[in-house]
Amino acid sequence: MASKASKKDAVVNTRADLAEHIEAFLKAGGKVQQIPSGVSGQTSTSGPRQIVLSHKTS
């Protein structure tokens, strides 16, 4: 099992990697779009899909 120190190092490395990727993306002309809270990327309009595991009969 990983120690707390190695987990902390992994988080720091992940953040550094993410920062490098973002910087490269922006330098390549990429733009960041801020999406308002509550907006969903789900495009299906067929309504909720519920799974019924059993039908109880009276």
Characterize the structure shown.
The chain is mainly α and 58 residues long. Helix content is 41%, strand content 0%. The protein has one helix at residues 4-27. The longest helix is centred in the first third of the chain and has 24 residues, at 4-27. The chain is flat, with a radius of gyration of 22 Å. The N and C termini lie far apart (51 Å). The model has no long low-confidence stretch (mean pLDDT 81). Residues 34-48 have a biased composition (Polar residues). This is Transcriptional regulator SutA RNAP-binding domain-containing protein. Pfam families: SutA-RBD. InterPro entries: SutA_RBD. Residues 34-58 are annotated as: Disordered.
Give the overall shape, derived from the CA principal axes: flat
Q: What proportion of the residues form beta strands (DSSP E)?
A: under 5%
Discrete helix count: 1
State the share of residues found in helices, binned by percent: 40-55%
- Model regions low in confidence, pLDDT < 50 over at least 5 residues: none
Oligomer: single chain
- Can you count the beta strands? 0
What is the makeup of the main sheet? none
Instruction: Measure the end-to-end span.
Output: 51 Å
Class derived from helix and strand content: mainly alpha
Radius of gyration: 22 Å
**Overall pLDDT metric:** 81
Order of helices and strands: H
